[in-house]
Write a structure and sequence with these properties.
The protein is α/β, with parallel strands linked by helices and 307 residues long. It contains ten helices and 13 strands. It has a six-stranded parallel sheet, with helices on both faces. Helix 1 packs across helix 7 and helix 2 runs parallel beside helix 4. It is globular, with a radius of gyration of 19 Å. Bound molecules: guanosine-5'-diphosphate.
Length: 307
């Protein structure tokens, strides 16, 4: 990418898209093309056709998606399937039609089989059934990965995709019904502390293990791969380390300095028992995460809730 290349970041207001924008700006890219969902509805084929014809972006980061935590995935099942398929179909196909030089599609580690051996290698994709709570989202995202792969094969495109692990950082979603565990817990513990509540309710059993990556580290990885990687394998992006939800709860409790009780609500689902990515490939491609989990959460908490 040249410093004045037209680079379209789809989903620039979201957690991932906004982190990619910050990274590109830091690197001195001056011709970023940004459209909010109000200005450009990516599920609408006509609008996407007109936008690509008019703007002719040279590079595309496809970070726009309908996303959510375990409960949102399970509740808005049709919507997650429909909207993600429409967004991907429109953006990936128009990127091909309009000769985009390179596109990066953001997939997700939750599209791997529920019982995948750990750590999860890129080659385990489609080797077993999905976790039922996020099957619709997984089906949509896999379609996106396969579009990139097959547009490369049939049309000679240069479309790549990445599989980020669970992310956290600025511009996350804090709605307790639809968010992921890390922002949800920060908010719950913070509010319990401020309001002097005696306990915090946490979902599930605390036994599942998850890997967490700061979104600024992901943006570094996306930039690095966009500059250097060509290939059909959707590259895992993670830290290579995971913790139990119980351990995460303890870290957040300590950072927020909350002294009350914790109540485990086992009526809520645990989801996948473990989701740890094998990061051998991305290490061999020259990227490694930098932000340690406790430091990342501390800074995130300070910026979001304390300033
Ligand atoms: P997942 O990684 O797709 O399962 O999505 P989540 O980040 O939503 O959930 C991860 C794990 O954290 C699951 O085992 C949840 O049951 C657990 N968890 C505990 N408390 C919460 C909470 O308040 N919100 C969410 N979203 N998950 C929670």
């Amino acid at each position: 990418m040249e410093k004045n290349s037209g680079i379209y970041i789809a989903g620039h207001k979201g957690m991932v898209g906004s982190a990619i924008v910050r990274k590109l700006q830091q690197e001195g890219f001056s011709n970023l093309i940004l459209r909010s969902s109000r200005e450009l509805d990516l599920t609408d084929q006509k609008q996407v056709i007109n936008f690509f014809e008019e703007k002719k972006p040279e590079y595309v980061f496809l970070a726009a998606a309908t996303v959510g935590g375990i409960q949102a995935n399970n509740t808005y099942r049709a919507q997650f399937l429909y909207e993600n398929l429409m967004i991907q179909n429109n953006v990936i196909h128009q990127s091909y039609v309009n000769g985009v030089k390179k596109l990066m599609f953001l997939a997700s580690s939750c599209i791997y089989p529920k019982m995948a051996p750990q750590p999860i290698k890129e080659s385990y994709l489609l080797e077993g059934p999905f976790e039922p709570t996020n099957e619709p989202y997984a089906i949509a995202k896999i379609a996106g990965v396969k579009m990139c792969e097959n547009y490369n094969r049939q049309y000679g495109c240069n479309f790549i995709s990445v599989m980020p692990t669970n992310l956290y950082g600025p511009n996350d979603n804090y709605d307790l019904e639809t968010s992921h565990v890390l922002p949800a817990l920060l908010r719950k513990f913070h509010e319990a502390k401020i309001k002097g509540l005696e306990y915090v309710e946490v979902w599930g059993t605390g036994i599942p293990r998850r890997e967490f990556l700061h979104v600024d580290d992901l943006a570094e990885a996306c930039f690095h791969l966009m500059e250097t990687y060509h290939g059909n394998v959707s590259v895992n992006v993670g830290t290579g380390q995971d913790i139990t939800i119980k351990e995460l709860v303890e870290i957040i409790k300590k950072i927020v300095n909350y002294e009350g009780e914790i109540i485990w609500n086992s009526d809520k689902p645990d989801g996948t028992p473990r989701k740890l990515l094998d990061v051998t490939l991305i290490h061999s491609l020259g990227w490694k995460y930098k932000i340690p989990l406790e430091k990342g959460i501390k800074d995130f908490y300070k910026n979001k809730f304390q300033d």
